[in-house]
Amino acid sequence: MSIEDTSVSRRQFLKGSAVAGAAVAAGGLSGGLTPATAKAEGAPSKWDKEVEVVIVGTGHSGLAAAIAATDAGAKVVILEKMKKEFEGGNSKVSGNMWWTPTDLPQALEYIGALSYGLTDKECIQALAEEMLKLNDWLQKLGIRANPLGIFQPEHPELPGAACVRTWTNGTGDARLWTPLREEAAKRNVEVIYEAAAKTLIQLPSREIAGIRAEIAGKPCFIKAKKGVILCCGGFEFDFEMQKNFLPGWPIYCQGSPGNTGDGIRMAQQAGAALWHMNNPLAGLGGIVVPEFAPVVIPVSVSGSGYIRVDKFGKRFMSENRPSRHGFGHKEYLMFFDGVVGDFTRLPCYTVFDETSRLKGPLASTRKFGWFGWHSGYEWSRDNSKEIEKGWIVKGETVADLAAKVGMKPADLEETITKYNENCKKGVDPDFNRPAQNLVAIESAPYYAVKMFPTMYNTQGGPRRNAKCQVMDPFDQPIPRLYSAGELGSFWGWMYNGGGNNAECLCTGQIAARNVVAMKPLA
Fold first, then answer.
1. Nearest alpha carbon to residue 420 among 445, 397, 438, 407
2. Of 18, 46, 69, 501, which is least packed with CB atoms within 10 Å of its CB?
3. Count of Cβ atoms closer than 10 Å to residue 133 Cβ
4. Phi, psi of 82 (to 5 degrees)
5. Is 217 left (phi over 0), alpha (psi -120 to 50) or beta?
6. % of the chain with per-residue pLDDT over 70
7. What is the crossing angle of helices 121-132 and 499-516, to 10°?
8. Phi, psi (degrees; rounded to nearest 5) at 25
């Protein structure tokens, strides 16, 4: 069975994105839990459906879990809250690369250094051992590991970094997700779409017996005789969670708007502890426009004829500083000013001139991220259409531009004058931008785009152990509840490109092996 690409209309895109708004409206630390709903539900008098394993989410972790559990003889069902054309979560719209280590001792060093002491050694050991076996497992599924080379390693200064090897399965869109989805289809894995998992069903013994989902607007109780595996991503589009857990907000995401913290809330109801909640995989930068909000549009200016300024029109960083996965530029994300009581660099502004405007489109048309996959939008080659829409602000003079974006004209004029003088001297005494990248901004008219941190995903969620069991605050596993992938990721702090995809595939298998080994509930 093959998986065909499908295009979607803007109406479908926005409807898919609208789930994020529901999470924002819910309010509260955990998306609106109230005392009446703060406890997981008990078993119903009658189940609507019974299987051995219920999996939530059709990303890499959900598919890996489904394949592994089915191959072990278990009957599984996957619940996917989005429509079929939007399945795959962050996995499908990601770069679809992964990394594996060449050596276990080095892998333990490197993953430990990336985790910065926030992930226990047993979990690191389990992940590293599974990563060493990952390419063999993929090869059995007919998925080839072709050397990629980038991010190899991404953090060469850390101990053990020499072990990193990055991989890709050839060319094409969703080149890792698509064959995994096809393998699940070959095994006749049942996937129920537009099936939002709402609450875990918990017995007095604390065992998880199943899930209450909402399908076609009606409750559906699905029994999991052996257990539940939550593979439903993070809280990128729950802006109330962002306010309580992230170092700065709002941060906008390139991934699936279906990621609204559902698994976190369900696990909390069942008594789960949380970890790694302050870790967004974010960097520079993108714009948010009414037509596609809250999904971000990644943008960049061709060449080097631009600067980034804060809300006061002042430069605050070397704009050409190399970017890595993770928290992004420290100048950009550690930015709350207690004196003025504001995030002065969130948003910030990218300022450029007519010469740079004509060098090419600010946004790529390739299939990467939710916008690239599902918006159907074609960015104009000279950015003129986006100027007309108001996505790019235009000013005939620097002062005119400053006034339009809410800055004092004299402040932005002073910044650009000083920057242009530095370009003539070939030196940036403030931020050490390389001389070859010092290109003056002097060709009217002038332009600005409002920039936000752009995240790929969050890493936080219910804490899990080396067996991918979800843990309570007293370090005890919640019986028959497992998680995999981004939801409660082992990546506690820093990150190497391809790490989430590798972890999804590894933890999906680990969770499946352990849940299938359980004795079934009566």
1. 438
2. 46
3. 12
4. -90, 165
5. left
6. 91
7. 100
8. -65, -25
pLDDT at 33 over 60: no
Write the DSSP symbol of residue 43: P
Residue 296 tokens read as: 């971000």
Backbone phi, psi, residue 147, to 5°: -55, 135
Domain ranges of the chain: 10-279+459-516, 281-455
- Of the candidates 264, 279, 231, the residue with the CA atom closest to the CA atom of residue 510: 231
> Would you give the distance in Å from CA 209 to the centre of its chain?
29
Q: Is the peptide bond before 250 cis (omega within 30 degrees of 0)?
A: yes
pTM: 0.92
φ, ψ of residue 451 in degrees (nearest 5): -115, 135
**One-character DSSP codes across 366-407:** SS-HHHHHH------TTSHHHHHHTSSEEESSHHHHHHHTT-
Q: Which residues of 231-376 form beta strands (DSSP E)?
A: 252-253, 274-275, 280-287, 297-298, 306-309, 336-337, 342-343, 348-353
- Which pair of structure tokens corresponds to residue 391? 């996505």
pLDDT tens, position by position, 243-289 = 999 988 999 999 999 999 999 999 999 999 999 999 888 887 899 99
Residue 231 has pLDDT above 90, yes or no: yes
pLDDT at 171: 74
Domain 10-279+459-516: state its class.
Answer: alpha beta
* Gap between the Cα atoms of 455 and 262, Å rounded: 18
- 365 alpha-carbon distance from chain centroid: 20
Model pLDDT, residue 151: 95
Q: Which two tokens stand for residue 111?
A: 């993953």
Non-local CB neighbours of 333 within 8 Å, separated by 6+ positions: 247, 248, 282, 327, 346, 453
- Report residue 74 as tokens: 């278990």
Other C-beta atoms within 10 Å of 255: how many?
27
Q: Assign 191 to helix, strand or coil.
A: strand
- What's the pLDDT at 366? 84
Residue pair 288/451 in contact (Cβ under 8 Å)? The answer is no
User: How close are the terminal C-alpha atoms of the chain, in Å?
Assistant: 35
Average pLDDT over residues 405-432: 97
Residues in CB range of 154: below 8 A, 6 or more apart: 164, 324, 325, 495, 496, 497
